[in-house]
Design goal:
Number of helices: 6
Largest sheet: 2 strands, antiparallel
Structural class: mainly alpha
């Protein structure tokens, strides 16, 4: 009987280390694909981001390194709490990104007013001679007009979906194994 309890305890210990790492790795992969897609639409597709769109990228620039650092520490043998803390912090960062995505999507659908000072899409010039031509041809991108939609969702809407998935994944990873460990005692 005590042998099966010891085996169960070892299995719980293994799952409490592997489940957070798996959730973290999935969140990292989803986040990298999401931000790479945003950059792809900008650089390859020619979609100029508005100021609010650019702000929605910041959680990826903060959250993904947090997850990566937690996974690296976990891989190097750090206590599982280090990874869990990194995942919780990343969840908070991505929750902010979710709020930004919902805010901009709602403004695009005219559910509420958007920012009045939002514009973007202005590239830096490489030549003073081209400055006037660039100023004349520059089109400011509005934060309240969707430049693209798929299945009814704009870039901001898809960012909200991805951010929600990242919040769920990171929180699930942080909580993974905690209930089992308490139940095994």
């Amino acid at each position: 009987m005590s042998t099966s309890l010891a085996a169960d305890g070892a299995a719980v210990a293994r799952s409490s280390r592997t489940l957070p790492a798996l959730a973290g790795a999935l969140a990292l992969a989803l986040g990298v694909v999401t931000i790479a897609t945003a950059w792809g639409f900008q650089l390859i597709g020619g979609y100029a981001p508005c100021a609010l769109c650019l702000e929605q990228r910041v959680p990826y620039y903060v959250g993904l390194p947090l997850i990566a650092a937690g996974l690296i520490a976990h891989r190097l043998g750090a206590h599982a709490t280090v990874l869990r803390v990194a995942l919780v912090l990343a969840a908070g960062v991505f929750a902010y990104g979710l709020a930004l995505g919902v805010y901009q999507s709602g403004a695009e659908w005219a559910f509420w007013p958007g920012p009045t000072d939002c514009g973007g899409g202005v590239a830096t010039t490489t030549s003073a001679g081209n400055l006037l031509a660039q100023i004349q041809s520059t089109k400011l991108v509005s934060c309240t007009e969707a430049s693209w939609r798929m299945f009814g969702l704009s870039f901001a809407g898809w960012n909200a979906v991805a951010s929600l998935a990242l919040v769920v994944l990171t929180l699930a990873g942080a909580a993974a194994g905690l209930r089992r460990r308490g139940a095994a005692r």
